[in-house]
Amino acid sequence: MSTPPASILRRLGLDRPALRAWALYDWANSAFVLVIITAVFPVYYRQVAANGIDGARADFWFSLVTSMTLVLVALLAPVLGALGDFLGRRKALLAIFLSLGVAASAGLALVQEGDWTLALVLFAIGNLGVATSFVFYDALLPHIARGDELDRVSTAGYALGYLGSGLLLIVDLAAIQRPALFGLANSGLATRLSFLSVALWWALFSLPLFRRVPEPPRRIESDERAAAMAAVAATFSRLGETFHELSTGYREAFKLLIAVLIYNDGIGTIIRMASIYAASRGLPNQHIIGAILLVQFVGIPFAFLFGALAGRIGAKRSILLALVVYTGISILAYRMQTVQEFYLLAILVGMVQGGAQALSRSLFAAMIPKHKASEFFGFFAVFEKFAGILGPLVFTLMIGFTGSSQKAILSVIAFFALGGFLLSRVDVEAGGRLAREIDARLLGDALEEPGPTPRVSGT
Question: Which residues contact 317 (CB under 8 A, 6 or more apart)?
Fold first, then answer.
C-alpha cells in the first residue's frame, strides 16, 4: 500500500502550510547565494565589470568589500534582532532587508563593462540584505515548529534551497552559454538577465512566507513594561541583557555557538576555497561549475535524510557524523589528482553540507527562549559571519608557509576536530529544558501583545 502524501510531508517536515511557506524562503533566497555570490557574479565582475583595471586591484577591492559587508552584518544583526523582538515586527524587518537584496540583485543587471564600483556597491547591498534577512527568518523557526519538528523543518528548508537555486542556475548557465537559444544577443546580456532572474525569483517565492507564516506574539518583559522604555532604549537594553544571559545563563547554547564558530570555519573554508583549490590543481572551469551543481542536487535528498537521522540519533550526533565525513573530505582533497576524484568530493560535500548547517540552526533554536529568538539568532549570525574569516585566513597562511594549497587543505581538519570536541561537550537536554522553563515562566507573568494578524491559507 502506498504512503499517503500527508504522511510523506510529515516525515519531511512540510505537512502544514506555515511550514511549507517558511521552508520556501530558503528556495527563494538561495538563488542569490548560488547565482550571485558563488557562480556567476564573481566571474562577471572579474571579466567585465572590472575590465580595464589591474587584476590584483580588482581582487583586492572584491575581497575588501566582501569582508566589510560581513563585519557590518555582524555588527547590525544583534541590534536588529533585539529591535524585532521588542517591536514584534520580525516579518516587517525581514521584508525591508529582503527588498534591499532584491533591488540590489535587479540593479546588477545594469552593470556594464568598467562599472566595477557600481557592481561592488550593489553586491555589498545584496549581501547585507540576504544575510540580515536570515536573522528574522531563522527566528521564526521555533515559533512555527514544535520541538520534535525543528530538525526536520530546518533541513527541509536547506533541501528546498538546494533545489530552487540549482534549477535557476541551470537555466541561467544555459542562457549564458547558448544565448541564441533564448533569443538573446550575447552572453553578456544573458549574464545581466541572470541577476534580474534572481531578483524576480527571490521576490516571488518569498510571498508565501508573508501570507501564511503568522507573526509571533510580542512579549514585553515585566521590567520593560514598568519602565515604559522607548523602542530604541529597549533595544539596546535587551541587547546587553541578552548577551549577558547567553554567556552566563544559557551556557549550553553559548557553548554550541563557540563550537559552531569553529567547525563552520572549516566548512566555510571548503565552500569558499574549493573553486580556487580545484583551479590550482589544473581542473577545467566547466568541471568546477559542474561540481557546484552536483553539490546542489546531491544536497537535496541528503538534507532530508539528515533531518530523519536527527530524529533517530539526535541532532548533535548527526552533526558530529557530518564533521567526521568532512575530515575525510579534507584528506581526500589532499590526495586528489583527477576530475573524477573532484566529483567524488563534490558528492561527499553535498551529502553533509546542508545537514550540518541546518541541524546547527535547529539545535540552537531548541535551546533559546522563543520570545527572544531574533536576538539570539542575531548573535548566531555574528558567530556565523566571523566563522567565514578565520578559516580562509589560516588556509592562506598555510599556503604561504608550505608553498602549496595541497598541503594547506589539511589545516582545515583542525577546525573539524576542535569544533567537534566542543560540540560533544554541549548538554542539549539541559539547554532545551532551561529554554522551556523560561518560556513557561514568561507566559505566566509577562504582558503579551499579538502581532498583526496574517492572512492564513487553509490546507
Answer: none
- Residue 85 is inside which H or E element, if any? helix 55-87
Q: Dihedral of CA 168/171/176/182: which sign?
A: negative
Other Cβ atoms closer than 10 A to 8: 12
Instruction: Look at residue 133 and tell me whether its pLDDT is greater than 90.
Output: yes
Q: Is 450 helix (H, G, I), strand (E, B) or coil?
A: coil
Mean pLDDT of 160-185: 95
Count of Cβ atoms closer than 10 Å to residue 428 Cβ: 18
Torsion angles phi and psi, residue 219, rounded to 5:
-125, 120
Query: Residue 192 is placed in which grid cell?
Result: 545581466
pLDDT of 337 reads 84
Output the CA–CA distances (angstroms, integers) from residue 178 to 123, 174, 253, 284, in the order listed. 25, 6, 49, 19
Q: What CATH topology corresponds to 12-203+246-449?
A: Growth Hormone; Chain: A; (1.20.1250)
* The three three-digit cell numbers of residue 220, written as one number: 514585553
The greatest distance separating any two alpha carbons of the chain, rounded to the nearest whole angstrom, comes to: 67
Q: Is the pTM of this model over 0.90?
A: no
246 close to 177: Cβ distance less than 8 angstroms: no
Asked if 140 and 213 count as a contact pair (C-beta separation under 8 A), the reply is yes
Cell readout for 110 is 545594469
Position 276 scores a pLDDT of 67
φ/ψ of residue 166, rounded to 5: -65, -40
pLDDT at 161: 94
Burial class (CB in 10 A: 0-12, 13-18, 19+), 312: exposed
Q: Rounded to whole angstroms, what are the CA distances from 106 to 55, 189, 444?
A: 26, 13, 47
CA distances from 38 to 9, 207, 391, 420 (A): 31, 25, 18, 27
